[in-house]
Design a protein that fits this description.
The chain is mostly beta strands. It has 2 domains: about 200 residues, no CATH class; about 45 residues, Laminin (Ribbon). The protein is built from 3 helices and 23 strands. A 6-stranded antiparallel beta sheet has the order 1-2-3-4-9-10, with no helix packed on it. The longest helix is centred in the first third of the chain and has 14 residues. The chain is elongated, with a radius of gyration of 37 Å. Keywords: Disulfide bond, EGF-like domain, Repeat. One of its GO terms (molecular function) is calcium ion binding. This is Alpha-tectorin. It holds the Pfam family hEGF.
Length: about 350
């Protein structure tokens, strides 16, 4: 495609009919801003949430503000119809691999659009070093229709006219990824669209192949492959695998934590032990080993040694609680640990 901003190709007449949702199309447009569209080209540069984009009928591998005016030969947008046998065989293989109920599917036609090393609108000299490379592949056998989104490199999400940073191409209104039929009811939005998460497309997938997304598009609803992410789960220690859109998560027992439930829970991390009590990690909770001066579940109470030993100091003595023990405060007439011994004054008084 020639150097431009916000433009689109001329109408591309297809040699086959491509079914998208409930409609058949024989013409498409490749748009600079990361869209393949039917019926008309699209110059809108800020992504909008599906399905609220009016009557636009689009495949959106990465709808964002692409500008290829100033990158010369270092970037481009290529598109072509192909019935090359090697490409047809690869397309057939991928559909059969990721859609098991399509084991007899034989592709007869593909259309490939590639956005190569494209920068964003409003990029500074630093921003121009941030580039994206992604691809949209249409596949059909004349009856069933599929689309593949491939992501080789995603380093920015937003042009400056959409609120993005001129150095990073981030923030503002990030790219929309998915499909829209233009009727307010038939659409599909890839999780993370129009959020900063869309920057991670090269690490995500709906077929366990980082940077690759496949969809069947000829039904009333877009159909991703039915991938069971839990088949190769690494959940450990009795963790339960929970299937997700692009991956799985592990639901851990009360005894473990971590991404894969690989770590024992250290109950002492949030220990409530007080007064220099020592936390002892347990199976379901922690206990506090108290110093001799304190007691209680959390060592929260001073030990009253007078009560602990049920002390009665003799001869009018008073028990005095101490840090680690007790003592008896004796009257002048007595002495000894428990005021058990009379003094000379006691004898004098006697």
């Amino acid at each position: 495609m020639h150097a431009n901003d916000d433009e689109y190709s001329s109408a591309q007449n297809l040699s086959v009919v491509f079914k998208f949702f409930h409609a058949n199309f024989s013409t498409l447009y490749v748009n600079t801003n990361g869209l393949v569209s039917f019926l008309s080209g699209v110059s809108t540069y800020t992504s909008e949430p599906f399905p609220g984009i009016g009557s636009l009928i689009v495949l959106a591998p990465f709808w964002a503000d692409v500008d290829i005016r100033y990158c010369n030969s270092s970037c481009n947008i290529w598109y072509r119809e192909s019935d090359d046998l090697s490409i047809i065989n690869k397309a057939t293989s991928e559909i059969q691999q990721y859609f098991p109920d399509m084991e007899h599917f034989i592709a007869s036609w593909t259309y490939i659009a590639t956005w190569y090393n494209v920068p964003f609108y409003g990029a500074s000299a630093v921003g121009l070093t941030k580039r994206n490379t992604f691809q949209c592949v249409l596949i059909t056998n004349g009856l069933y229709a599929f689309v593949i989104f491939n992501y080789n490199k995603i380093e920015w999400t937003t042009g400056t006219a959409s609120g993005g940073n001129s150095d990073t191409g981030l923030d503002g209104t990030p790219a929309q990824v998915g499909f829209n039929m233009g009727d307010q009811s038939h659409y599909y939005s890839v999780e993370g669209s129009r959020t900063s998460d869309i920057l991670n497309l090269t690490n995500l997938s709906n077929v366990k192949y980082p940077g690759k997304f496949l969809f069947r598009v000829d039904l009333e609803e877009i159909e991703p492959p039915d991938i069971d992410w839990c088949i190769d789960s690494n959940c450990q220690n009795g963790g339960t695998c929970v299937d997700g859109h692009f991956d799985y998560t592990c639901l851990c027992t009360v005894l473990h934590n971590g991404s894969y439930c690989e770590s024992d829970i250290d109950w002492c991390i949030d220990s409530k032990c007080q007064n220099d009590g020592t936390c002892i990690d347990g199976l379901f909770d922690h206990t506090c080993l108290c110093p001799v001066s304190h007691t209680g579940v959390y060592c929260e109470s001073d030990i009253d040694f007078c009560e602990l030993h049920d002390i009665s100091c003799g001869n009018g003595g008073t028990c005095v609680d101490g840090l680690f023990d007790y003592s008896c405060a004796c009257p002048l007439t007595h002495t000894g640990y428990h005021c058990e011994t009379g003094t000379a004054k006691d004898k004098l008084l006697g």
